[in-house]
Amino acid sequence: MKSSNITAAALQLYAVTDSRWLNGNSLAEVVEKALAGGVTCVQLREKHLPFDEFLRTAKEIKALCQNYHVPFIVDDNLDIALACDADGLHIGQNDMPAAKARQLLGPDKILGVSAQTAQQAVTACRDGADYLGVGAVFPTGTKTDAVEVPLDMLKTITAAVDIPVVAIGGINADNIAQLSGTGIAGAAVVSAIFAQKDIKKAAANLRQLIAKEF
To answer: 45 catalytic, yes or no?
Structure first.
């Protein structure tokens, strides 16, 4: 595997934030519960926050991640990632090209890229991605425009690249075992952690299941 800015171990349980399930808590409070439960990486995904509020939130969550020695990734907003000195950035196929993102981030930051096909995966790897997010592997209500990626394609992608691959999309405690044997480094989850009544317990349970399956 080529030298990467993130280890496969750090991608085992990748938590993606969603403010819809805060239930009166702050985003930082729910992220801290997830970290206490054992998530290994946090992605701040906020599509609609004003810049100042987004940056303030990013700095707060970055500090939490540092306390837990967990990588902090910003989704799809290079300006915020640079302004808060995040550990990395995650981009989709419709965002800026991976090669440009890598150039602007510099060589030492983590770059994650979403991929749905082997060709997209190979291109992202060539253009400087450190890891891939592949999905949706199961039906998901979190992302309305998500394209479903069959498990056979997930296996094809993990075999085609020498960087870690994280599966995303509709993953929960009931179906995560179906991803065993696909070659992934870990699973990215949203509602399976943040929509649960006991966030810390949900994260700890998923971490145990991942340790058993992958």
So the answer is: yes
Q: What are phi and psi of 160, to 5 degrees?
A: -85, -15
Catalytic residue among 45, 62, 109, 200: 45
Query: How many Å apart are CA 38 and CA 6, to the nearest integer?
Result: 17
Nearest to 16 by CA among 195, 148, 161: 195
Q: Please give the C-alpha separations between residue 65 and each of 60, 87, 151, 158, in angstroms, as whole numbers.
A: 9, 10, 31, 27
Q: What is the CA radius of gyration of the chain?
A: 16
Residues 95-152 pLDDT 10s: 999 999 999 999 999 999 999 999 999 999 999 999 999 999 998 876 667 789 999 9
Question: Distance (Å, rounded) from C-alpha 88 to C-alpha 5?
Answer: 9
Spot the catalytic one: 102, 114, 191, 200: 114
Tokens standing for residue 185: 């480094």
> What is the mean predicted confidence (pLDDT) over 26-31?
96
Q: Tell me if residue 143 is catalytic.
A: yes
pTM of the model: 0.96
Residue 181: phi, psi to the nearest 5? Answer: 85, 5
Neighbours of 67 (CB within 10 A): 10
Query: Can you tell me the distance from the alpha carbon of 205 to that of 107, in angstroms, rounded to the nearest whole number?
Result: 35
Q: Which of 4, 19, 59, 143 is catalytic?
A: 143
Dihedral pair phi/psi, residue 62, rounded to 5°: -60, -45
- Tokens standing for 201? 């317990």
Based on the residue annotation, tell me whether 155 is a catalytic residue of this protein: no
